[in-house]
Protein backbone atom coordinates (compact mmCIF):
# COMPACT_ATOMS: atom_id res chain seq x y z
CA UNK A 1 0.00 0.00 0.00
CA UNK A 2 1.39 3.38 -0.97
CA UNK A 3 1.61 6.40 1.32
CA UNK A 4 -1.03 8.17 -0.81
CA UNK A 5 -3.47 5.26 -0.40
CA UNK A 6 -2.81 5.15 3.34
CA UNK A 7 -3.66 8.85 3.61
CA UNK A 8 -6.90 8.41 1.63
CA UNK A 9 -8.08 5.50 3.80
CA UNK A 10 -7.01 7.36 6.93
CA UNK A 11 -9.22 10.34 5.99
CA UNK A 12 -12.17 8.14 5.04
CA UNK A 13 -12.08 6.25 8.34
CA UNK A 14 -11.83 9.51 10.23
CA UNK A 15 -15.00 10.84 8.56
CA UNK A 16 -16.89 7.60 9.22
CA UNK A 17 -15.82 7.55 12.84
CA UNK A 18 -16.93 11.17 13.28
CA UNK A 19 -20.38 10.47 11.78
CA UNK A 20 -20.78 7.28 13.80
CA UNK A 21 -19.96 9.00 17.08
CA UNK A 22 -22.48 11.79 16.35
CA UNK A 23 -25.26 9.16 16.17
CA UNK A 24 -24.08 7.30 19.30
CA UNK A 25 -23.88 9.93 21.97
CA UNK A 26 -24.82 7.66 24.90
CA UNK A 27 -22.08 5.05 24.63
CA UNK A 28 -19.10 3.89 22.60
CA UNK A 29 -19.94 0.77 20.58
CA UNK A 30 -17.67 -2.12 19.76
CA UNK A 31 -17.58 -0.92 16.19
CA UNK A 32 -16.29 2.46 17.34
CA UNK A 33 -13.42 0.76 19.17
CA UNK A 34 -12.63 -1.26 16.08
CA UNK A 35 -12.62 1.85 13.92
CA UNK A 36 -10.34 3.60 16.38
CA UNK A 37 -7.91 0.65 16.30
CA UNK A 38 -7.84 0.60 12.51
CA UNK A 39 -7.28 4.35 12.44
CA UNK A 40 -4.29 4.06 14.79
CA UNK A 41 -2.87 1.14 12.80
CA UNK A 42 -2.99 3.06 9.54
CA UNK A 43 -1.36 6.06 11.18
CA UNK A 44 1.53 3.86 12.32
CA UNK A 45 1.74 2.25 8.86
CA UNK A 46 1.93 5.68 7.22
CA UNK A 47 4.66 6.77 9.63
CA UNK A 48 6.67 3.59 8.97
CA UNK A 49 6.34 4.01 5.18
CA UNK A 50 7.66 7.54 5.45
CA UNK A 51 10.83 6.34 7.25
CA UNK A 52 11.89 3.73 4.64
CA UNK A 53 14.85 5.00 2.58
CA UNK A 54 14.55 5.69 -1.13
CA UNK A 55 17.90 4.90 -2.76
CA UNK A 56 16.97 5.90 -6.31
CA UNK A 57 18.64 9.31 -6.10
CA UNK A 58 21.77 7.77 -4.56
CA UNK A 59 22.07 5.21 -7.36
CA UNK A 60 21.61 7.94 -9.95
CA UNK A 61 24.26 10.27 -8.51
CA UNK A 62 26.86 7.76 -7.22
CA UNK A 63 26.35 4.66 -9.34
CA UNK A 64 28.42 5.87 -12.30
CA UNK A 65 31.62 5.63 -10.22
CA UNK A 66 31.04 1.89 -9.63
CA UNK A 67 32.76 -0.36 -12.18
CA UNK A 68 32.65 -3.97 -13.30
CA UNK A 69 36.06 -5.65 -13.33
CA UNK A 70 36.86 -8.53 -15.70
CA UNK A 71 40.12 -10.44 -15.41
CA UNK A 72 42.03 -13.12 -17.28
CA UNK A 73 44.02 -15.27 -14.90
CA UNK A 74 46.96 -17.64 -15.16
CA UNK A 75 48.17 -19.81 -12.31
CA UNK A 76 49.69 -23.12 -11.35
CA UNK A 77 50.80 -25.99 -13.54
CA UNK A 78 48.30 -27.58 -15.81
CA UNK A 79 48.48 -30.77 -17.76
CA UNK A 80 46.57 -33.91 -18.50
CA UNK A 81 47.36 -37.56 -19.14
CA UNK A 82 46.44 -37.26 -22.81
CA UNK A 83 49.58 -36.10 -24.59
CA UNK A 84 51.85 -38.38 -26.62
CA UNK A 85 50.08 -41.58 -25.60
CA UNK A 86 51.24 -44.30 -28.04
CA UNK A 87 48.89 -44.44 -30.99
CA UNK A 88 47.16 -41.17 -30.07
CA UNK A 89 47.63 -38.01 -32.12
CA UNK A 90 47.22 -34.98 -29.78
CA UNK A 91 45.94 -32.92 -32.71
CA UNK A 92 42.96 -35.27 -32.94
CA UNK A 93 41.90 -34.67 -29.34
CA UNK A 94 38.67 -32.60 -29.33
CA UNK A 95 39.29 -28.99 -28.34
CA UNK A 96 36.59 -29.19 -25.67
CA UNK A 97 38.33 -32.12 -24.01
CA UNK A 98 41.71 -30.37 -24.17
CA UNK A 99 40.23 -27.24 -22.59
CA UNK A 100 38.59 -29.35 -19.88
CA UNK A 101 41.92 -30.85 -18.87
CA UNK A 102 43.69 -27.51 -19.07
CA UNK A 103 41.22 -26.09 -16.56
CA UNK A 104 40.51 -29.05 -14.30
CA UNK A 105 42.91 -31.90 -15.07
CA UNK A 106 45.52 -32.97 -12.55
CA UNK A 107 48.98 -34.11 -13.48
CA UNK A 108 49.21 -37.90 -13.27
CA UNK A 109 52.74 -39.12 -12.38
CA UNK A 110 54.35 -41.20 -15.09
CA UNK A 111 52.06 -40.04 -17.90
CA UNK A 112 53.01 -37.43 -20.51
CA UNK A 113 51.22 -34.09 -20.58
CA UNK A 114 49.37 -32.13 -23.21
CA UNK A 115 51.51 -29.54 -24.97
CA UNK A 116 51.02 -25.87 -24.08
CA UNK A 117 49.53 -26.77 -20.71
CA UNK A 118 52.13 -25.47 -18.26
CA UNK A 119 49.70 -22.81 -17.02
CA UNK A 120 46.03 -22.92 -16.17
CA UNK A 121 44.13 -20.01 -17.66
CA UNK A 122 40.75 -18.77 -16.61
CA UNK A 123 38.56 -15.71 -16.27
CA UNK A 124 36.68 -13.98 -13.52
CA UNK A 125 34.89 -10.80 -12.60
CA UNK A 126 34.18 -8.56 -9.66
CA UNK A 127 33.38 -4.97 -8.79
CA UNK A 128 35.23 -1.82 -7.83
CA UNK A 129 34.86 1.95 -7.51
CA UNK A 130 36.83 4.99 -8.68
CA UNK A 131 38.25 7.07 -5.83
CA UNK A 132 39.78 10.03 -7.68
CA UNK A 133 40.04 11.80 -11.03
CA UNK A 134 43.50 10.32 -11.61
CA UNK A 135 41.83 6.98 -12.30
CA UNK A 136 42.63 4.96 -9.18
CA UNK A 137 40.19 2.14 -8.50
CA UNK A 138 39.72 0.14 -5.28
CA UNK A 139 38.68 -3.51 -5.41
CA UNK A 140 39.41 -6.75 -3.55
CA UNK A 141 42.82 -8.41 -3.83
CA UNK A 142 41.18 -11.77 -4.47
CA UNK A 143 39.37 -10.35 -7.52
CA UNK A 144 42.68 -9.65 -9.32
CA UNK A 145 44.72 -12.51 -7.88
CA UNK A 146 46.89 -14.12 -10.62
CA UNK A 147 45.45 -11.72 -13.21
CA UNK A 148 47.41 -11.27 -16.44
CA UNK A 149 44.85 -8.91 -17.97
CA UNK A 150 42.42 -6.58 -16.15
CA UNK A 151 39.58 -4.64 -17.76
CA UNK A 152 37.34 -2.05 -16.11
CA UNK A 153 33.88 -1.35 -17.52
CA UNK A 154 32.07 1.88 -16.62
CA UNK A 155 28.34 2.46 -16.50
CA UNK A 156 28.56 4.48 -19.74
CA UNK A 157 29.84 1.25 -21.41
CA UNK A 158 33.45 2.43 -21.76
CA UNK A 159 35.89 -0.45 -21.24
CA UNK A 160 39.37 0.47 -20.07
CA UNK A 161 42.48 -1.56 -19.55
CA UNK A 162 43.66 -1.37 -15.93
CA UNK A 163 47.10 -1.75 -14.42
CA UNK A 164 47.55 -3.33 -10.99
CA UNK A 165 49.22 -0.76 -8.75
CA UNK A 166 49.41 -3.07 -5.74
CA UNK A 167 47.50 -5.68 -3.75
CA UNK A 168 47.48 -6.57 -0.07
CA UNK A 169 46.15 -10.08 0.56
CA UNK A 170 46.06 -9.66 4.35
CA UNK A 171 43.42 -6.93 4.10
CA UNK A 172 42.04 -8.11 0.72
CA UNK A 173 42.48 -4.65 -0.82
CA UNK A 174 43.90 -3.93 -4.27
CA UNK A 175 44.39 -0.70 -6.21
CA UNK A 176 44.08 -0.43 -10.00
CA UNK A 177 44.85 2.46 -12.33
CA UNK A 178 43.00 3.43 -15.50
CA UNK A 179 43.65 6.33 -17.90
CA UNK A 180 40.59 8.24 -19.11
CA UNK A 181 38.99 11.66 -19.03
CA UNK A 182 35.82 12.71 -17.20
CA UNK A 183 35.88 9.87 -14.71
CA UNK A 184 33.10 9.82 -12.08
CA UNK A 185 34.33 9.57 -8.47
CA UNK A 186 32.71 8.29 -5.28
CA UNK A 187 32.52 10.26 -2.03
CA UNK A 188 34.40 8.66 0.87
CA UNK A 189 32.69 8.48 4.27
CA UNK A 190 33.84 7.66 7.81
CA UNK A 191 33.31 4.02 8.79
CA UNK A 192 34.13 4.81 12.44
CA UNK A 193 30.78 6.62 12.70
CA UNK A 194 28.69 3.61 11.64
CA UNK A 195 25.99 2.28 13.99
CA UNK A 196 24.16 -1.03 14.03
CA UNK A 197 20.77 -0.67 12.35
CA UNK A 198 21.79 1.96 9.77
CA UNK A 199 20.51 1.46 6.22
CA UNK A 200 23.13 0.49 3.63
CA UNK A 201 23.21 0.12 -0.15
CA UNK A 202 25.55 -2.05 -2.22
CA UNK A 203 26.17 -1.61 -5.95
CA UNK A 204 28.12 -4.24 -7.86
CA UNK A 205 28.05 -7.00 -10.45
CA UNK A 206 26.64 -10.14 -8.80
CA UNK A 207 27.00 -13.11 -11.16
CA UNK A 208 28.15 -10.60 -13.81
CA UNK A 209 24.97 -8.49 -13.78
CA UNK A 210 26.58 -5.03 -13.80
CA UNK A 211 25.36 -2.14 -11.65
CA UNK A 212 22.97 -4.14 -9.50
CA UNK A 213 21.76 -2.34 -6.36
CA UNK A 214 20.81 -4.16 -3.15
CA UNK A 215 19.96 -2.80 0.31
CA UNK A 216 19.98 -3.80 3.96
CA UNK A 217 21.17 -2.67 7.37
CA UNK A 218 24.35 -2.85 9.44
CA UNK A 219 23.99 -6.07 11.44
CA UNK A 220 27.16 -5.81 13.55
CA UNK A 221 30.49 -4.00 13.70
CA UNK A 222 34.10 -5.10 14.23
CA UNK A 223 33.50 -8.71 13.29
CA UNK A 224 36.63 -10.89 13.22
CA UNK A 225 36.78 -13.65 10.62
CA UNK A 226 39.26 -16.56 10.51
CA UNK A 227 40.90 -15.35 7.29
CA UNK A 228 40.72 -11.62 8.06
CA UNK A 229 42.76 -11.21 11.24
CA UNK A 230 43.65 -7.57 10.65
CA UNK A 231 40.24 -6.36 9.44
CA UNK A 232 37.35 -5.40 11.78
CA UNK A 233 34.60 -6.33 9.30
CA UNK A 234 31.23 -4.60 8.96
CA UNK A 235 28.49 -7.25 8.99
CA UNK A 236 25.33 -6.45 7.02
CA UNK A 237 22.29 -8.23 5.64
CA UNK A 238 22.73 -6.54 2.26
CA UNK A 239 22.35 -9.11 -0.53
CA UNK A 240 25.92 -9.78 -1.72
CA UNK A 241 26.82 -12.57 -4.13
CA UNK A 242 29.83 -13.66 -6.22
CA UNK A 243 30.72 -10.69 -8.41
CA UNK A 244 29.89 -8.11 -5.73
CA UNK A 245 33.41 -8.49 -4.33
CA UNK A 246 35.27 -5.19 -4.34
CA UNK A 247 32.17 -3.09 -4.81
CA UNK A 248 31.18 -0.17 -2.54
CA UNK A 249 28.88 -0.16 0.47
CA UNK A 250 27.07 3.19 0.69
CA UNK A 251 25.34 4.91 3.61
CA UNK A 252 22.15 6.93 3.09
CA UNK A 253 24.22 10.08 2.54
CA UNK A 254 25.74 8.53 -0.58
CA UNK A 255 29.18 8.03 0.98
CA UNK A 256 31.22 4.86 0.65
CA UNK A 257 31.72 3.35 4.11
CA UNK A 258 32.87 -0.14 3.17
CA UNK A 259 34.22 -2.50 0.51
CA UNK A 260 32.10 -5.63 0.08
CA UNK A 261 34.42 -8.58 0.50
CA UNK A 262 32.94 -11.83 1.81
CA UNK A 263 29.73 -13.72 2.52
CA UNK A 264 28.89 -16.53 4.90
CA UNK A 265 27.08 -19.19 2.94
CA UNK A 266 26.54 -22.92 2.82
CA UNK A 267 25.20 -22.73 -0.73
CA UNK A 268 27.70 -20.31 -2.28
CA UNK A 269 25.04 -17.61 -2.57
CA UNK A 270 23.55 -14.96 -0.31
CA UNK A 271 22.15 -16.16 3.03
CA UNK A 272 21.84 -12.92 4.97
CA UNK A 273 25.42 -12.61 6.24
CA UNK A 274 27.67 -10.25 4.29
CA UNK A 275 30.97 -8.70 5.36
CA UNK A 276 32.59 -5.46 4.22
CA UNK A 277 36.01 -3.95 4.88
CA UNK A 278 35.63 -0.57 6.64
CA UNK A 279 36.51 2.25 4.26
CA UNK A 280 38.91 3.78 6.79
CA UNK A 281 40.95 0.56 6.70
CA UNK A 282 40.65 0.26 2.93
CA UNK A 283 41.80 3.84 2.26
CA UNK A 284 44.76 3.47 4.63
CA UNK A 285 45.91 0.36 2.75
CA UNK A 286 45.18 1.98 -0.63
CA UNK A 287 47.29 5.02 0.22
CA UNK A 288 50.23 2.76 1.08
CA UNK A 289 49.79 0.72 -2.11
CA UNK A 290 49.76 3.89 -4.21
CA UNK A 291 52.84 5.27 -2.46
CA UNK A 292 55.06 2.20 -2.16
CA UNK A 293 53.29 -0.71 -3.85
CA UNK A 294 52.86 -2.67 -0.62
CA UNK A 295 51.28 -2.18 2.82
CA UNK A 296 52.54 -2.53 6.38
CA UNK A 297 50.62 -3.19 9.58
CA UNK A 298 51.32 -2.67 13.22
CA UNK A 299 52.82 -5.52 15.27
CA UNK A 300 52.55 -5.99 19.03
CA UNK A 301 54.22 -9.38 19.54
CA UNK A 302 51.92 -11.31 21.88
CA UNK A 303 50.02 -14.57 21.83
CA UNK A 304 46.52 -14.07 23.21
CA UNK A 305 43.44 -16.08 24.15
CA UNK A 306 39.82 -15.34 24.98
CA UNK A 307 38.58 -14.86 28.55
CA UNK A 308 35.67 -17.12 29.53
CA UNK A 309 33.58 -16.94 32.71
CA UNK A 310 35.89 -19.19 34.74
CA UNK A 311 39.03 -17.25 33.75
CA UNK A 312 37.25 -13.95 34.42
CA UNK A 313 36.49 -15.06 37.99
CA UNK A 314 40.01 -16.34 38.55
CA UNK A 315 41.52 -13.01 37.45
CA UNK A 316 39.03 -10.91 39.41
CA UNK A 317 37.02 -9.59 36.48
CA UNK A 318 33.32 -8.85 36.93
CA UNK A 319 32.53 -10.27 33.49
CA UNK A 320 34.40 -12.02 30.64
CA UNK A 321 36.20 -9.39 28.56
CA UNK A 322 39.59 -8.49 27.13
CA UNK A 323 42.47 -10.40 25.55
CA UNK A 324 44.51 -12.58 27.90
CA UNK A 325 48.24 -12.50 27.09
CA UNK A 326 49.61 -16.06 27.23
CA UNK A 327 53.02 -15.35 25.67
CA UNK A 328 55.19 -12.32 24.89
CA UNK A 329 57.69 -12.52 22.02
CA UNK A 330 61.22 -11.59 23.02
CA UNK A 331 62.37 -8.14 21.86
CA UNK A 332 58.89 -7.40 20.50
CA UNK A 333 57.09 -4.07 21.06
CA UNK A 334 55.09 -5.73 23.83
CA UNK A 335 58.26 -7.01 25.50
CA UNK A 336 59.94 -3.60 25.27
CA UNK A 337 56.84 -1.92 26.75
CA UNK A 338 56.74 -4.30 29.72
CA UNK A 339 53.68 -6.40 28.91
CA UNK A 340 53.71 -9.74 30.75
CA UNK A 341 52.03 -13.13 30.38
CA UNK A 342 48.87 -13.02 32.48
CA UNK A 343 48.06 -9.42 31.59
CA UNK A 344 44.54 -8.89 30.25
CA UNK A 345 44.31 -6.14 27.62
CA UNK A 346 41.00 -4.34 28.28
CA UNK A 347 41.41 -1.48 25.81
CA UNK A 348 43.91 -0.48 23.13
CA UNK A 349 44.43 3.01 21.74
CA UNK A 350 41.31 4.16 23.58
CA UNK A 351 39.05 1.46 22.11
CA UNK A 352 37.59 -1.42 24.16
CA UNK A 353 38.70 -5.00 23.64
CA UNK A 354 35.58 -7.10 24.38
CA UNK A 355 37.08 -10.29 22.89
CA UNK A 356 40.60 -11.46 22.13
CA UNK A 357 39.79 -11.39 18.40
CA UNK A 358 39.18 -7.64 18.62
CA UNK A 359 42.81 -6.85 19.50
CA UNK A 360 44.67 -7.76 16.25
CA UNK A 361 42.62 -5.37 14.05
CA UNK A 362 43.18 -2.56 16.56
CA UNK A 363 46.93 -3.18 16.48
CA UNK A 364 47.04 -3.66 12.72
CA UNK A 365 45.66 -0.21 11.88
CA UNK A 366 48.34 1.57 13.95
CA UNK A 367 51.09 3.08 11.84
CA UNK A 368 54.48 1.51 12.64
CA UNK A 369 56.47 3.91 14.80
CA UNK A 370 53.44 5.39 16.56
CA UNK A 371 53.01 5.00 20.33
CA UNK A 372 49.63 4.15 21.87
CA UNK A 373 48.24 3.34 25.30
CA UNK A 374 47.08 -0.11 26.34
CA UNK A 375 44.92 -0.48 29.46
CA UNK A 376 45.63 -3.84 31.09
CA UNK A 377 44.56 -5.73 34.20
CA UNK A 378 47.51 -7.05 36.22
CA UNK A 379 47.26 -8.59 39.67
CA UNK A 380 43.69 -7.37 40.00
CA UNK A 381 44.58 -3.71 39.26
CA UNK A 382 44.19 -1.75 36.05
CA UNK A 383 47.16 0.15 34.64
CA UNK A 384 48.11 2.01 31.46
CA UNK A 385 51.11 0.86 29.43
CA UNK A 386 52.56 2.86 26.55
CA UNK A 387 53.56 0.73 23.56
CA UNK A 388 55.54 1.80 20.49
CA UNK A 389 54.20 -0.25 17.59
CA UNK A 390 56.56 -1.76 15.01
CA UNK A 391 55.92 -3.11 11.51
CA UNK A 392 54.76 -6.69 11.10
CA UNK A 393 57.75 -8.80 10.08
CA UNK A 394 55.92 -10.43 7.18
CA UNK A 395 55.06 -7.01 5.78
CA UNK A 396 58.68 -5.89 6.08
CA UNK A 397 59.83 -8.91 4.06
CA UNK A 398 57.20 -8.22 1.39
CA UNK A 399 58.36 -4.61 1.21
CA UNK A 400 61.99 -5.59 0.87
CA UNK A 401 61.13 -8.11 -1.82
CA UNK A 402 59.05 -5.55 -3.69
CA UNK A 403 61.84 -2.98 -3.55
CA UNK A 404 64.38 -5.50 -4.82
CA UNK A 405 62.09 -6.47 -7.70
CA UNK A 406 61.37 -2.87 -8.48
CA UNK A 407 64.95 -1.83 -9.16
CA UNK A 408 65.59 -0.93 -12.76
CA UNK A 409 68.43 1.22 -14.02
CA UNK A 410 66.93 1.67 -17.48
CA UNK A 411 64.07 3.65 -18.93
CA UNK A 412 62.24 0.41 -19.73
CA UNK A 413 60.07 0.74 -16.63
CA UNK A 414 60.56 -2.88 -15.58
CA UNK A 415 62.80 -4.83 -13.22
CA UNK A 416 64.84 -7.61 -14.82
CA UNK A 417 66.61 -10.79 -13.77
CA UNK A 418 68.93 -13.25 -15.48
CA UNK A 419 67.91 -16.81 -16.33
CA UNK A 420 70.22 -19.82 -16.25
CA UNK A 421 70.56 -22.17 -19.21
CA UNK A 422 68.47 -24.86 -17.55
CA UNK A 423 65.51 -22.52 -17.13
CA UNK A 424 65.84 -21.25 -20.69
CA UNK A 425 65.98 -24.80 -22.02
CA UNK A 426 62.87 -25.79 -20.08
CA UNK A 427 61.02 -22.90 -21.74
CA UNK A 428 62.20 -23.94 -25.18
CA UNK A 429 64.28 -20.81 -25.85
CA UNK A 430 68.01 -20.16 -26.18
CA UNK A 431 68.28 -16.69 -24.67
CA UNK A 432 66.35 -14.00 -22.80
CA UNK A 433 65.94 -12.13 -19.49
CA UNK A 434 63.07 -12.36 -17.02
CA UNK A 435 60.73 -9.48 -16.19
CA UNK A 436 60.19 -9.58 -12.40
CA UNK A 437 58.14 -6.38 -11.92
CA UNK A 438 56.54 -3.71 -14.09
CA UNK A 439 56.10 -0.03 -13.29
CA UNK A 440 52.40 0.73 -14.02
CA UNK A 441 53.33 4.15 -15.41
CA UNK A 442 56.37 3.04 -17.45
CA UNK A 443 57.02 2.23 -21.10
CA UNK A 444 56.93 -1.54 -20.46
CA UNK A 445 53.40 -1.36 -19.02
CA UNK A 446 52.23 0.78 -21.92
CA UNK A 447 53.54 -1.86 -24.33
CA UNK A 448 51.70 -4.64 -22.47
CA UNK A 449 54.72 -6.27 -20.84
CA UNK A 450 53.84 -8.36 -17.76
CA UNK A 451 55.77 -9.72 -14.81
CA UNK A 452 56.84 -13.26 -15.73
CA UNK A 453 57.45 -12.46 -19.39
CA UNK A 454 60.87 -13.32 -20.83
CA UNK A 455 62.31 -10.73 -23.25
CA UNK A 456 63.93 -12.71 -26.07
CA UNK A 457 64.77 -9.96 -28.58
CA UNK A 458 64.76 -6.18 -28.59
CA UNK A 459 64.68 -4.39 -31.94
CA UNK A 460 65.47 -7.78 -33.58
CA UNK A 461 68.61 -8.30 -31.45
CA UNK A 462 68.93 -11.38 -29.26
CA UNK A 463 69.02 -10.50 -25.56
CA UNK A 464 71.58 -12.46 -23.56
CA UNK A 465 71.95 -10.35 -20.40
CA UNK A 466 70.20 -7.70 -18.33
CA UNK A 467 73.04 -5.25 -18.91
CA UNK A 468 72.82 -5.68 -22.67
CA UNK A 469 69.08 -4.98 -22.70
CA UNK A 470 69.39 -1.91 -20.48
CA UNK A 471 72.09 -0.51 -22.76
CA UNK A 472 69.94 -1.03 -25.86
CA UNK A 473 66.92 0.59 -24.20
CA UNK A 474 68.92 3.57 -22.97
CA UNK A 475 70.38 4.07 -26.46
CA UNK A 476 66.97 3.90 -28.17
CA UNK A 477 65.52 7.11 -29.56
CA UNK A 478 62.59 8.62 -27.66
CA UNK A 479 59.23 8.27 -29.34
CA UNK A 480 60.34 5.48 -31.69
CA UNK A 481 58.33 2.24 -31.59
CA UNK A 482 60.57 -0.84 -31.55
CA UNK A 483 59.59 -4.54 -31.78
CA UNK A 484 59.97 -6.59 -28.63
CA UNK A 485 59.75 -10.40 -28.76
CA UNK A 486 58.73 -11.99 -25.47
CA UNK A 487 58.02 -15.51 -24.33
CA UNK A 488 54.78 -15.58 -22.31
CA UNK A 489 54.19 -19.01 -20.87
CA UNK A 490 54.54 -21.37 -23.81
CA UNK A 491 53.82 -18.81 -26.51
CA UNK A 492 56.01 -16.20 -28.24
CA UNK A 493 54.48 -12.74 -28.58
CA UNK A 494 55.55 -9.51 -30.27
CA UNK A 495 54.96 -6.16 -28.53
CA UNK A 496 55.67 -2.63 -29.72
CA UNK A 497 57.75 -0.69 -27.17
CA UNK A 498 58.00 3.08 -27.30
CA UNK A 499 60.57 4.82 -25.10
CA UNK A 500 59.03 8.05 -23.85
CA UNK A 501 61.98 9.37 -21.84
Condensed summary:
A six-stranded antiparallel beta barrel has the order 1-2-3-6-5-4. It is an alpha+beta fold.
Description:
The protein is α+β, with helices and mostly antiparallel strands. The chain folds into 4 domains: 3-51; 53-76 and 119-293, Beta Barrel (Thrombin, subunit H), CATH 2.40.10.120; 298-394, PDZ domain (Pdz3 Domain, Roll); 406-498, Pdz3 Domain. 25% of the residues lie in helices and 32% in strands. It has helices at residues 3-22, 30-51, 56-62, 95-104, 279-292, 309-314, 333-337, 359-364, 393-405, 421-426, 443-447, 466-475, and strands at 66-75, 120-130, 136-139, 147-153, 159-168, 173-177, 187-188, 199-204, 212-223, 233-236, 248-250, 255-263, 274-278, 298-299, 302-306, 323-328, 344-348, 351-352, 371-378, 381-388, 390-391, 414-417, 433-438, 454-458, 461-462, 481-488, 491-498. A 6-stranded antiparallel beta barrel has the order 1-2-3-6-5-4. The chain has a 6-stranded antiparallel barrel with strand order 8-9-10-13-12-11. Helix 1 (3-22) packs antiparallel against helix 2. The radius of gyration is 30 Å and the shape is flat. 36% of the residues are buried. Mean pLDDT is 79; it is low at 77-93, 95-117 and 405-409.
Helices and strands, with pairings:
Blueprint: H1 3-22, H2 30-51, H3 56-62, E1 66-75, H4 95-104, E2 120-130, E3 136-139, E4 147-153, E5 159-168, E6 173-177, E7 187-188, E8 199-204, E9 212-223, E10 233-236, E11 248-250, E12 255-263, E13 274-278, H5 279-292, E14 298-299, E15 302-306, H6 309-314, E16 323-328, H7 333-337, E17 344-348, E18 351-352, H8 359-364, E19 371-378, E20 381-388, E21 390-391, H9 393-405, E22 414-417, H10 421-426, E23 433-438, H11 443-447, E24 454-458, E25 461-462, H12 466-475, E26 481-488, E27 491-498
Parallel strand pairs: 7-12
Antiparallel strand pairs: 1-2, 1-4, 2-3, 3-6, 4-5, 5-6, 8-9, 8-11, 9-10, 10-13, 11-12, 12-13, 14-21, 15-16, 16-17, 17-18, 17-19, 19-20, 22-23, 23-24, 24-25, 24-26, 26-27
Helix pairs in contact: 1-2
Amino acid sequence: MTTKNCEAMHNKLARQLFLHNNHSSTRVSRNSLLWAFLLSFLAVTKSFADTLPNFSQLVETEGDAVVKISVMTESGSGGSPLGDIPGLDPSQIPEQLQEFYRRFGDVVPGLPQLPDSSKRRGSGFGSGFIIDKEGYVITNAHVVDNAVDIRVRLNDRRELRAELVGADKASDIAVLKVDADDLPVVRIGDSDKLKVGEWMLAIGSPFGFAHTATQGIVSALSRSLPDGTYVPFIQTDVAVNPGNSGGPLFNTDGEVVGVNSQIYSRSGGYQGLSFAIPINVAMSIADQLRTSGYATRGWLGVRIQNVDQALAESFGLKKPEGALVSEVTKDSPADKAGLLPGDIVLSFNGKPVPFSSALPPLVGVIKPGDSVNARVLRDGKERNIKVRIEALEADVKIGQSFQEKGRSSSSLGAALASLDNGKLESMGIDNGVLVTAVDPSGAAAAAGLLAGDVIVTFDRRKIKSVKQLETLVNDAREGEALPLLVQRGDSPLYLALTIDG
